[in-house]
Task: structure prediction
Amino acid sequence: MDNKRITCIGGANIDRKAVAKDDIRYRSSNPVNTTESFGGVARNVAENLAKLGNGVSLFSVVGDDSEGRSVLADSVCKNIDVALTKVAKEGRTGTYTAVLDGDGEMVLALADMAIYDQFTSDVIANSWEALVTSEAIFMDTNLSSEAIAEVISRCEKESIRLYIDPVSSLKAKKLPRDLSGVSVLFPNLEEAEELSGIRIKSSADYQVVADALKAHGVENVVMTLGSEGIFYSSPTGSGQLLPYSVEIVDVTGAGDALTAGVMSAMIQGCDLEVACRYGLAAAAFALQTEQSVAPDLSLEHLTAYIKEN
Result:
């Protein structure tokens, strides 16, 4: 794979997971096993992209604390350029705490992301000279609304491929109504409903919602459907692809792996359907590990996995 530079803009956090030993009991103490790792949507996507052979830069903000220094050091070890990432003198490095049931499904997530309020449109503008050289840009919605709109507008003007993960239905509200300049949007069902204003009642509504999002300016839509796989829609075709059958260990990070797989394949010239198959394969790798990024992920392994399945 050619070493094409991709810049990932957004969250770089400390991820904490608490996996319940028994059935979750609300309003009560629950015995759990806890783990801690490096995370954040943009950082996770960046690590996945690097494993797939891409040159990657991370543009984020961390605190001037031990967690922030650890995030940066670990990213460098994983071949991620962090020269653009800001170290804030005020504010703590972001944390994301997920509570999972015994089957590895997320029950609740707690996000302390106040530090990203410092990610303003001025920060984007002041760094644009470096960003404009990117082959493609990935962005999550941990930035301010103004910064998100700035990135979208500049990418449209410069014809830079822009990939966006709305992250959550709440954070999806930060996206502007005009999404012209967005190459691929990766919403889940709840986020797709929020952005389109359409309630999804059956699979027949997937295309309706995708068309509504494209009417807002999005070129391609990849809608994640959980256990039902994904629904993709491009200017040349649409369809639903089922996930690969795997034993699920942990769902955390699967969406980030899917995003990176799709991006890598599209940057190399694959159409959206083929790219989505790479994305689903990457997600399958992530689902089979407790880590946010599968340790054995590589382009060669993905290609072999797709051929075998």
Summary: The radius of gyration is 18 Å. The mean pLDDT is 93.
